[in-house]
Amino acid sequence: MVLAYPFLALLHAIYSLVILSISFFRHLTRQTPSPLHATRRRLPKHLSIIFVSDEDFEEQTNEYCITESIHRAISWCQQLGIPQLSVYDAEGIILNNAEAIREAVVPESRVKDSELDRRHIHYPPTPPLSDYSESEPLSPKGVSNSHGAFLSFCISPIQSASRASKKPHSLTLNVLSRETSKPSIASTARAIARTERRNYKAHNVRDTFELSVNSLESCLEGKNGLSPPDLMIIHPVHPSKYHRSPIELHGYPPWQIRLTEIYCNRFRKQYEARLMWFLPLHVSSTLLSSSLTEWEFREAVDQFATAEFRLGR
Amino acid sequence: MESLVLISSSVFQFLQWILAQLRITRLAQRSLLRVLAAGPIPQHVGFVMDGNRRYARGKGKLVQEGHGDGYLALRRVLEICLRLNIRCVSVYAFAIDNFKRPQQEVDALMQLAESKLLELCSHGDLLQEYGVKLNVIGRRTLFPDSVQAAVCKAEDLTKGNNRSILNVCMPYSSRDEMTTAVEDCIREALAKDVDYFTADDPIEGITEDTIDSHLMSVKRGSPPLDILIRTSGVKRLSDFMLWQCCENTQLHFSNTYWPDFGLFDFVPIIFEWQKSVWFRRQDVLFGGSSAS
């Protein structure tokens, strides 16, 4: 058993070398993704981005990279006509900066209402009917709506869109946090239970409570809920550290990700990271932290366009 | 050119035959696994066994044969996992949505499930040899009666085992599992009355932990999911263990079709796990001191 450890170390060394050469080969043979405005077979209707920050590093770098990425993503989505964008991070950095982001993307926001206040986030008290319309018009001019445990604002279309052939689209931006995830399912459960108890008391009959997948779905995804994203980009702010381990979902709302295509660029800044191995981790990571690039975005949209959906069949 | 390929392939086959005779590959595999098991090992690994039909089509086989080969791959991978001392293995065998497939294929899959479950659990076979308890997780009532009976019998045969757990998820969907968990939580809360002295409302006690503990797989003793592997190059979760894998679970999307999945696809994943555990420890050791 004692002999096993040196062997294991040797195997790991060989494995690292193999991985290094494979990734070098892939780097040489990688394909340039199609340009942003290329016609694709399919476009996501709802794009979601998970930002992975690291508390070990400066908060400012995290905030700056994430905010810049969101601004870029908004502009790409508007150019391509993706109607819904959700941004998520587990630490709540986006939520803390939501006001700043909103002011930047909704220039005519004269309304300084307190709806952004997190205390006002409410959960649907009763299970809404199973209407699945999410395209219903939100408030017209960038007024923030507080939905079930997440923030959502409507961004009006850019006027200066050079491509006059397509009509400009408005974009809904959802700001999600860990609260939108499992806690939101738990609070929906509490809301359903309260309604059920009220019904018992009103009619004084007790039959076994039953819940179907569809009714829970309409509570979580319906009127005040979050619709499932078609495509998800995982964007680590500090790729050099993150890429040492496989991808994770960092507590993204579980109910919605059933059919979501997951994308993560594992090669971003890999070479720079390898060259800076001798630097202390916090130095190299600050140097290497970066925002979402157009390359990644195009690659992700390409991946989605070529994906095959069989839905169990 | 063709003759060259023929000769080289026959030489290769001959070499393989010699190796098989000497049982060298088997020996090498076992020692490799023993070496691997010396490092950190995940507790719970999940597999989405995807690609049986594409594999069969690629090889010019029938779809049913593809599923048969998929079963062999399951045995192979399961043995690897058990040799590595992984405590719990979950496999996605049949989705509720799979009932939408052609009737012929569904029937063949039902037959396969019925016969192979009993085979796996029978005396002296894999599960008994390694002391594995079988759990069939999902909405079983959707199965035909004969399969339901086989499932009960198979579970009964292994209920005394406690070294490891095999969760066979069929007919399963994660949304169904979550809904059932929520339903159970609500039922329990409604059955209890409000304690007016302490103002302890059981409904307000429903939290994410309550739901987690009511999930079918957790109720049957599964530890948190550490690794999720999806084969055949699809980068989606397709309604498998969404609640369990959305946090602290490493996701791997392998390009191999499931029937081809083997040791050399699995070992790199274990390497990655070990690396991440070691780095995490290093961060705990050195990261804390540099931050202060």
TrEMBL record, chain A:
This is ditrans,polycis-polyprenyl diphosphate synthase [(2E,6E)-farnesyldiphosphate specific]. The chain crosses the membrane at residues 6-25. The keyword NAD does not apply. It is found in: Endoplasmic reticulum membrane. Residues 116-143 are annotated as: Disordered. One of its GO terms (molecular function) is ditrans,polycis-polyprenyl diphosphate synthase [(2E,6E)-farnesyl diphosphate specific] activity. Its cofactor is Mg(2+). GO terms for cellular component: dehydrodolichyl diphosphate synthase complex; endoplasmic reticulum membrane. The lineage of its organism: Eukaryota, Fungi, Dikarya, Basidiomycota, Agaricomycotina. Keywords: Endoplasmic reticulum, Magnesium, Membrane, Transferase, Transmembrane, Transmembrane helix. Pathway: Protein modification; protein glycosylation. Its EC number is 2.5.1.87.
From TrEMBL, chain B:
Keywords: Magnesium, Transferase. One of its GO terms (cellular component) is endoplasmic reticulum. One of its GO terms (molecular function) is ditrans,polycis-polyprenyl diphosphate synthase [(2E,6E)-farnesyl diphosphate specific] activity. The keyword Nucleus does not apply. Its EC number is 2.5.1.-. It is an enzyme of class 2 (transferase). Signal peptide: none annotated. It comes from the Eukaryota. The keyword Transmembrane does not apply. One of its GO terms (biological process) is polyprenol biosynthetic process. Belongs to the UPP synthase family. PANTHER family: DEHYDRODOLICHYL DIPHOSPHATE SYNTHASE COMPLEX SUBUNIT DHDDS, DEHYDRODOLICHYL DIPHOSPHATE SYNTHASE FAMILY MEMBER. This is Alkyl transferase. It comes from Lentinula guzmanii.
